[in-house]
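Support reply, case 0932

Customer input (verbatim):
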Amino acid sequence: TDRAQVYMALDRWSDAQAVFARLVADQSGREAQVGGCLQHLLLAFMNRLADPPASRQDLAQGLALAQAARYTMFFRLLPGTAASVCALALQAEMAPQFVDEVIRSRQLPAPADADGRWPWPLWLNLLGGFEMRRDGKPEPGSAKTQQKPLELLRLLACERNLALGTQAVKAALWPEADDA
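Our regenerated output:
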């Protein structure tokens, strides 16, 4: 599988497919299952833009094989590719618990197209209503929640460098207050 991943890194997709196909043909049991998983996940990744329905089908088959074999280390040499496959799965709502386990156990980096389904440590939705998620789960609000800390969080989230001076915070959160 390492050789196939090197081919993938070199954009030699057909060579990588051939290695995975040989692995499936030459092995049996769990090794063949892993090879089939990798073969389907590779096709899902390759076809994600050109043929989304085929990509989803291969993604479902690859994830089913991975889950059955408890194989979380797919594309271990290419964590960015593994993360993109996980993002595809989350967006298609396929095996979300298993994919979440893969992401967390491997500490995969979020790809650029990851959305709110990615298990971000902290996710803030600031447009169309405020929503906060911790570790991918909605953070319930309550009537007792203090609003000023949430307003400060929203203000900092909108600031590009996540840093504001004290005067700017005072002006934004307490515009009616005097300097005293």
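We compared this against your earlier run and they match. Two observations from our side: The longest helix spans residues 29-46. Helices lie at 2-9, 13-26, 29-46, 52-69, 79-91, 96-106, 147-158, 166-173. Please reopen the case if you see a mismatch on your end.
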